[in-house]
Amino acid sequence: MWWRSLLAATLLGLVVAGCQVRPLYLDAASGGPLSPVPDLRAIVVDPPRDYTEQVLRNELLFLFRGDGGPADEERFRLRIIANNATDPLAVQLEEDLPAAVLFTLDTTFILSEIATEKTLLTGSSTVTASYDFSSQRFANVRAERDASARAAKTAAEQISARIAAYFAAKRSES
Fold it and tell me: How far is Cα of residue 148 from the mean position of the Cα atoms in its chain?
């Protein structure tokens, strides 16, 4: 009976030994050979068209560089196309007004190399954020703006993680 446990532990050890799992930002502090940080710091993000895209762009710059400053060397361009919509979630029967509203942000991103204009990575992200609908008009405007900022920050985290994973995989291949 004990030999089954020993055999299972040995097999598990062999399986785990063959794994290629490593942290995404393995040596981010030193900027070592497998870290995607040098590539992330070389991304230029296109200018925004509205408030939601501005929040998205600012968050991406912070995630890429940590300080939101300019790119170290402009090697990559990130284009973002964002569309948003609001949908009532529940309607109060007596007043025929929504009780809550769902803000949906659909983003499509295109990462390309500036020198060759070659597309390296494309993707999309859909994020939702809800807010309570009030009888006060300004409260609704502010709640929608806050929901759009929350959705933009979440979308920026998703986009940044996908781009970092792309660069990390590209660096580990070479």
Answer: 15
Which two tokens mark 88?
């009532």
Nearest 5°: phi and psi at 134? Answer: -115, 165
Phi-psi region of 66 (alpha: psi -120 to 50; beta: other; left: phi over 0): left
SS3 for the chain, per residue?
CHHHHHHHHHHHHHHHHCCCCCCCCCCCCCCCCCCCHHHHCCEEECCCCCHHHHHHHHHHHHHHHCCCCCCCCCCEEEEEEEEEEEEEEEEECCCCEEEEEEEEEEEEEEEEECCCCCEEEEEEEEEEEEEECCCCHHHHHHHHHHHHHHHHHHHHHHHHHHHHHHHHHHHHHC
Domains plus CATH for the chain? Answer: 25-173 (3.30.160.150)
pLDDT digits (tens, 9 = 90+) for 140-156: 999 999 999 999 999 99
Query: Side by side, which strands form the sheet with 43-45?
Result: 43-45, 76-92, 97-113, 119-132
Q: What is the pTM assigned to this prediction?
A: 0.79
- Give residue for tokens 């794994």: 19
